[in-house]
Amino acid sequence: MADDDKMKHEGAEPSKHIDLYGNIVDLPDFTMKQIYDAIPAHCFQPSLLRSLAYVVRDYLYLGTLMYSTYIFVPILPSIHLRALCYSLYTVLAGMIMTGIWILAHECGHGAFSKSRTLNNTAGFFLHSSLLVPYHSWRITHSYHHKATGDLERDTVFVPHSREYWVKHNLGRDADPLTVEHLSEDAPIVTLYHCIVHQLFGWPLYLLDNLSSQKGERGFPYYSHYWFGSDSALFKASELSSVLLSDMGVLLMAGLLCMGVNAFGWWTMLVFYGVPYLWLNHWIGAAATIYRDFGFIDTHLFHNIVGTHVVHHLVSSIPFYHAQEATEAVKTVKGKHYHADRKTNLMAALWRNQRDCQFVEESPGMEGSGVFMFRNLHGRGVRPRNLSAGEALTAWVGSMPPKATEVEETLDFPIYI
């Protein structure tokens, strides 16, 4: 008798994959051939003129905004009004720069034009202007697309396993008196994680491969800027492209230094530095579920939020065809089509930073290879009880507990 039939016969429900919010998750049953067949053929065809038009448009937006702010804001009579206008400028400029970043991202996927040379040329200049090593990131990003969501092969946004999280946060090397451990669920801690992740996660990823596989991080060998033969990220045939990318970033850095000499560091900080931080924020909030961010997404972000899932299914589709492709695959995906049009994007970011601590398999599904997010502070579906070994690890900074103490802990999970 099959296990599921046996459980039903005994009056128990068969085991299921359960997500953090208690929803039953069925594994996708569609094929990539069905996805490709459902998408109209013209959606796969990039237009060079259309892509260039968006580049010109975005730089016109940015140039007009910079010029207007530089000329008119200083003559405003109130310092408070000037401060407000400069603040609004940094937010808007950061959004426009994010759109330019996305156009360069299109180049890396071959969705800018039919010419690989034109794609790489445009992508190099667009990304270099934003201090991004174009070829270096293009190469590692392609690996990410080939292994998205694979805990062993993905190259970025790799979640902590249950075992790693317990050892790292509750092990003997952890300090039980630190504010972070004592207030993991406190809003100030969530805010801290959001700020660090959104503003500095991107440059740290480029610098030392932050958020990748454990043991595959560290400067210089895991850096996107390292072009030595001992690079851990790139093949020997790719090192010349890495060097070229570095030269592009250095050239842009030199231009920024010239700007400091010509206009002063404060002006450059306002006109480029702070918008650059906003850029880091927006690309760090990339969605993995269909969300609605209104005009900002559809116009400035080139619909990357609202069509990000189909982008991961077929990354060569130009962004201006992605919405049509998204609608086309709905029937194929069926119940596996997931969208959250109600939750504010920032609220979703906050919730994920707070609640998604580590991943583990659902009870009864051990060995399935399918992992769901869990946390130890009581939000959502409870994780499995700490095993004896994990309970021993959780006794931070003290002698191993007696066997009776360990047994008592197995009756309930530990929440902090």
Automatic annotation (TrEMBL):
Keywords: Membrane, Transmembrane, Transmembrane helix. Residues 88-341 form the Fatty acid desaturase domain. GO terms for biological process: lipid metabolic process. It holds the Pfam family FA_desaturase. The chain crosses the membrane at residues 59-80, 86-104, 269-290. GO terms for molecular function: oxidoreductase activity. The keyword Hydrolase does not apply. InterPro entries: FA_desaturase_dom, Fatty_acid_desaturase. It comes from the Eukaryota. This is Delta(12) fatty acid desaturase. It comes from Lachnellula occidentalis.
